[in-house]
């Protein structure tokens, strides 16, 4: 996965690299799990 933003935080002489990634995932829900839960409701 490619970072959305790349930068660095510095505290005096210390430099810490930082990468920001998206928290959302592109995967679709597993419909077998949804159907199993819905079947138990009825």
Overall description:
The chain has 42 residues and is of the alpha+beta class. It is 26% helix and 33% strand. It has a two-stranded antiparallel ribbon.
Helix/strand layout:
Blueprint: E1 5-11, E2 14-20, H1 31-41
Antiparallel strand pairs: 1-2
Separate helix tally: 1
Structural class: alpha+beta
Average pLDDT, all residues: 76
Rg from C-alpha positions?
20 Å
- Beta-strand content bin: 25-35%
Number of E-type strands? 2
Strand order of the largest sheet: 1-2
Q: State the shape.
A: rod-shaped
H/E series, N to C? Answer: EEH
Could you describe the largest sheet, including whether it forms a barrel? 2 strands, antiparallel
- pLDDT < 50 stretches: none
What's a concise summary of this model?
The chain is of the alpha+beta class and 42 residues long. Helix content is 26%, strand content 33%.
Write out key terms for the chains shown.
single chain; alpha+beta; two-stranded antiparallel sheet
């Amino acid at each position: 996965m490619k970072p959305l933003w790349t930068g660095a935080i510095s505290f005096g002489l210390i430099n810490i690299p930082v990468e920001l990634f998206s928290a959302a995932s592109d995967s679709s829900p597993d419909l077998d799990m949804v159907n199993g839960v819905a079947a138990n409701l009825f």
